[in-house]
Amino acid sequence: GYRVSLQGNFFGRNHTYTTFAEYNPRKHIKLDPPLNIQSNVTASKCQIWWSVPWYLVEILQYELQYKEYSMSWEIALNKTPPSSLPQIEIEATELRSGIAYIARVRCKVSENEDSYHSQWSEWSQTTVFQRPGVPKLSEKILNTRTMQFLFIPLSFGTLLYLFWNCKLSSRWQKASPALTFPHQLLSFSRSIICTMGILR
């Protein structure tokens, strides 16, 4: 322990002021920030980890801050790891797909530690991560599926049209045999043109 005092000459007279009667450095620690922060994102979660000196691992606690990359730190979200291990997980449901995030971490001596006390360290360097976006169907696959859905009703409509047209043609043939061949040819041509128009 130490006794800390301030001495000086004030208004021509020497004075001594006691600042700390008993100063114990281990009760007033400010740690260096964690190092080498890294991240890895999977479909279900984001894992973030960092490094601290091995002899401090068991007595430290951490606070993680993360936010969307384009946002301000003032609106960042805070998370506290459940243990003294230098790592934390963020569930994928807490992250928006396709959005870049940035995170940082700081540390201090755990509140459960009796031998040492400290204030929070400065924030560490940052790590950037992004939850993968939901895969989208390509335009080609989308068009193929659209054609598959449309093929059945278009085919049914075409067959119904041809059937109805042939039925009318047979009625006209009975009514006027002289117009049978030209009328059938005209009806067939109209059917082909109409069918091509529908398929397009």
TrEMBL record:
SUPFAM superfamilies: Fibronectin type III. The chain crosses the membrane at residues 146-164. Residues 33-132 form the Fibronectin type-III domain. Its main location: membrane. GO terms for cellular component: external side of plasma membrane. Keywords: Glycoprotein, Membrane, Receptor, Signal, Transmembrane, Transmembrane helix. It is found in: Membrane. GO terms for molecular function: cytokine receptor activity. It is a single-pass type I membrane protein. GO terms for biological process: immunoglobulin mediated immune response. This is Interleukin-9 receptor. The lineage of its organism: Eukaryota, Metazoa, Chordata, Craniata, Vertebrata.
